[in-house]
Sugar ABC transporter substrate-binding protein
Amino acid sequence: MSTFIKDYIERETISRRNFLFASAAGLTTAAMPGVFGAGMARAATDPALAWSYRDRASAYWNAIVSGGEAFTESIGKTKEDMTSLINEGSSEKSLADIKAFLAKNNGACAIACDANDSPNARPVAEAVQAAGGYVSTIWNKTDDAHPWDFGDNWVSHMTWSDEKPAEETARILFEAMGGKGGVVHLGGIAANNPAIERLNGLKNALKDYPDIELLDAQPADWDTTKAAELMASFLTKYGDKITGVHCANDNIAYGVMEALKAEGIEGMPIVAYDGNPEAVQMVMDGQLLATVFTNPHWGGGVTLALAYHAAIGTFKPSEEPNEHREFYGPTILVTAKDAADFKAKYLDNVPTYDWKDFWGPSNGQIVYK
């Protein structure tokens, strides 16, 4: 018998013995990473991909997920190779789905995630770290939770600096109102960072407009139907006192318009946020004064790209500076004067992105007040 064959048989015998010992002890391959050697290495170089998000009903989230799919295709896979973990606005479901995905794939996962509300980001990161996976998050986390506190497993967090853009839309609204009158604000989910920042932006602008009164500000949970119901209640309560509407996102603006149309009200000044194709067209048509684009296609793609490349070892998150672990995404104010050019550049032909340029379009490190 040749030495090569003898050595091979001995190695296989040892591997088989280790497997039996592990089985007898109730250990899994995740608990004994050295058992299968090359098999485990293959898993590490080909992590399962997932995007955890609310739903795909809105144009915004559809763009986010489309970005994730574009990245997935860029590494030679199909769209179907990216699993959608749809939480339907439930933080509990978000966490449960992520845990199940981690368990199914023995932790060999690269996950992009919006935690749905801020407190959920920490347990998501803890679950991913415990399983040995990798996650990059967007939008929602508490100020005291940071990726660098979780080693390499919480790769990055991206949010958008919404306060200033929301202040800019408010100023556009107030000027259209002639600097006086009453405004109502319809917001997102109360615990969401963007909902808080967009309301703060409105309040900042109000400081320079003493003749404008904030009549009311209530959450509409980013939802068109809830926004229509809330706006109808505002109209019942405040009537003609309302002379302008500040919306936390485009979906909310659509609901506001439905409520106004039902009451036969035309020409009400309205501003929104997200830069969805329908909203941009409404800006062009004069139905909205302004919206703000956050480039969700790029955001969705690069968030998954960061988790994936950390998982396969392209870069080591813990060796990156903090501004690469927590950073702002890009924002573009869209008004009537530039809406057509914006639509042609970003919506009619979606740009092709280099998914390894992780921080190119980003807008600096997150700043805490």
